[in-house]
Write a structure and sequence with these properties.
This protein is an alpha/beta fold and 374 residues long. It has eleven helices and 14 strands. The strands form three sheets. Strands 4-10-9-8-7-5-6 form a seven-stranded mixed β-sheet, sandwiched between helices. Strands 1-2-3-13 form a four-stranded mixed β-sheet. Strands 11-12-14 form a three-stranded antiparallel β-sheet, with helices on one face. Keywords: Aminotransferase, Pyridoxal phosphate, Transferase.
Length: 374
């Protein structure tokens, strides 16, 4: 049976990984500066992660949410302690799309309203409401387009104000650093005014931290650079270091009711073990400090390369913008220099999303190759 052909594939077959490297079937070593869409947070096959997942799968890998699962409580407490998001409540699911889907659903339940405001070049997932709030008509099917979504320009505060004052908006969903869209960011004034407008118009303010969370931005969450308190925070990618897990942090003003959200696999024992291993490693190895140090080092070198016209993003969620489309450059980096990088909807942007364990020698290796490739 052939695979449904929806992914353009590079001719590389990774079979193993260790920290910031992956290896193909011929034992060729590749420097991974993309982490499988920012999923690999603590490095491939980190010993803490391998031990935690192995021990858990030996005992109990799964049972449904009909029973007590102390690992969920432990994970929730650890997220609260490391993120500083006090008094939020946690709902666990399996992916970023599910996290945003549940966030939007919860916002609609809470407000009794149904329209969503999202922003140009935003990406929130591929499921029903999440994909409708994504600014890419090519992946929005007619069944998704039935959702009520208004997509505005980032930083268009007058547009946001006008739409919120119509009274039918349940949520504004924001990426504080856009991922797929190309590392664009709103201004501090914009984010803080949107948050204030949401408060005065009975609208939930949703922080999409699926890609920017878990220290990748240089803080635990990217919204923490601003004076805002989201009603709902969605998380996923780096949360499980490759094991499927997602979730939403829910402000205590939103009251839970039995049955309003649900999931079969979300928050299973194995997922929680993976999630705890990630958080423990981030804490023990001071990885957020490393993010900031390595970001500063990376940017300092990038500024010396004349072909790089713009450096975008924060922390280890970075983009290098050129005055040409980077598709061929990415292929050259993979096939000639054995380095994985990422693309974006901005075709002139090279996206850098390495494991948070990256060191200076890895950054040096990348820039030496980039200069040759250019």
């Amino acid at each position: 049976m052939p695979l449904f052909d929806v992914y353009p594939l590079y001719n590389v077959t990774p079979v193993s990984g260790k920290d910031i490297y992956v290896y193909d079937e011929n034992s060729t070593e590749y420097l991974d500066l993309y982490g499988g869409h920012a999923v690999i947070s603590i490095g491939h096959a980190h010993p803490n992660y391998v031990e935690a997942v192995t021990n858990q799968v030996k005992t109990l890998g799964f049972y449904s949410n009909a029973i007590q699962n102390p690992l969920q409580v432990e994970l929730a407490d650890k997220i609260e302690a490391l993120s500083g998001c006090k008094d939020y409540e946690l709902f666990l699911c399996n992916s970023g799309a599910e996290a945003n889907e549940n966030a939007l659903k919860l916002a609609s339940f809470k407000t009794g309203k149904s329209r969503v405001i999202a922003f140009k070049n935003g990406f929130h997932g591929r499921t029903s409401a999440a994909v409708a709030a994504t600014d890419n008509p090519n992946i929005v099917a007619p069944i998704n387009a039935q959702q009520k979504v208004t997509i505005l320009e980032l930083n268009d505060i007058l547009g946001v104000k006008a739409e919120l004052e119509k009274g039918d908006v349940c949520a504004v969903i924001v990426e504080f650093i856009q991922g797929v869209g190309g590392l664009d960011q709103g201004t501090s004034d914009f984010f803080e005014q949107v948050y204030a407008l949401c408060k005065t118009n009975n609208t939930m303010f949703i922080a999409d931290e699926v890609q920017s969370g878990y220290g990748r931005s240089g803080k635990f969450f990217a919204f923490q650079y601003y004076n805002v308190t989201p009603d709902i925070i969605s998380i996923a990618k780096g949360m499980g270091n490759g094991f499927p897990i997602g979730g939403i942090l829910i402000h205590p003003d939103i009251e839970a009711k039995y049955g309003m959200l649900g999931t079969t696999f979300g928050g299973n024992h194995l997922a929680c073990a993976a999630g705890l291993a990630v958080l423990n490693t981030i804490e023990e190895e001071n990885l957020i400090d490393n993010v900031n140090a390595m970001s500063e080092y990376f940017i300092s070198i990038a500024k010396t390369i004349p072909e790089i016209k713009n450096i975008k993003g924060r922390g280890l969620m970075l983009g290098l913008e050129f005055d040409f489309e980077v598709g061929d450059l990415r292929k050259k980096l993979i096939y000639d220099y054995h380095i994985f990088t990422g693309g974006a909807s901005n075709k002139k942007l090279l996206r850098i999303l390495p494991p948070l364990t990256i060191k200076k020698e890895h950054i040096n290796q990348f820039f030496e190759a980039l200069k040759k490739a250019l």
